[in-house]
């Protein structure tokens, strides 16, 4: 989990987030980090712009900072210079959820699940858990 040290500049905070945030998701390598291009695409700028922000040679606009905070699962305004961010942490679950909702079909499925009764959700969860266990058992059998 990424922690941002208080009293640091935007460039310092971004640098630390990029260095410490692991890319979640299926098929990703262990310990893989986001590239500047990936971050840029997520917030609507170029990878070069992200590089310049990280180096401190340019500043991100407020709207870009808000999109970065959303991308890394941070509280709003935590990337602003001088913000009290002692408790700010990148939320891996928020990042993983955002990545999952970006996959084809996942958002539509999530909306359908949102319309279900709680008891029905428990059935779906049990089915997914059983499928995950079968996959894990098959993977363990291959070792």
Specify Rg, calculated over alpha carbons.
18 Å
By DSSP, the count of extended strands is 0
**Class from secondary-structure proportions:** mainly alpha
The number of distinct helices, counting runs of at least 4 residues, comes to 7
Low-pLDDT parts are: none
Measured by DSSP, the beta-strand proportion falls in: under 5%
H/E order of the elements? Answer: HHHHHHH
Distance between the termini: 30 Å
Percent of residues in helices comes to: 55-70%
- Largest pleated sheet: none
Q: How many domains, as an integer?
A: 2
User: Which whole number gives the mean pLDDT?
Assistant: 78
Approximate shape: elongated
């Amino acid at each position: 989990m990424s922690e941002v040290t208080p009293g640091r500049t935007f460039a310092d905070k971004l640098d630390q987030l990029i260095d410490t945030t692991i890319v979640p998701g299926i098929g990703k390598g262990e310990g893989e980090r986001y590239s500047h291009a990936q971050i840029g695409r997520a917030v609507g700028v170029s990878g070069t712009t992200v590089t310049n922000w990280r180096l401190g040679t340019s500043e991100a606009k407020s709207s870009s900072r808000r999109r970065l905070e959303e991308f890394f699962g941070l509280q709003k305004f935590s990337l602003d210079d001088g913000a009290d961010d002692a408790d700010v942490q990148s939320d891996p679950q928020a990042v993983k959820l955002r990545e999952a909702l970006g996959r084809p079909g996942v958002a539509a499925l999530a909306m359908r699940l949102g319309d279900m009764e709680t008891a029905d959700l428990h059935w779906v969860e049990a089915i997914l858990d059983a499928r995950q266990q079968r996959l894990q058992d098959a993977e363990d059998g291959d070792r």
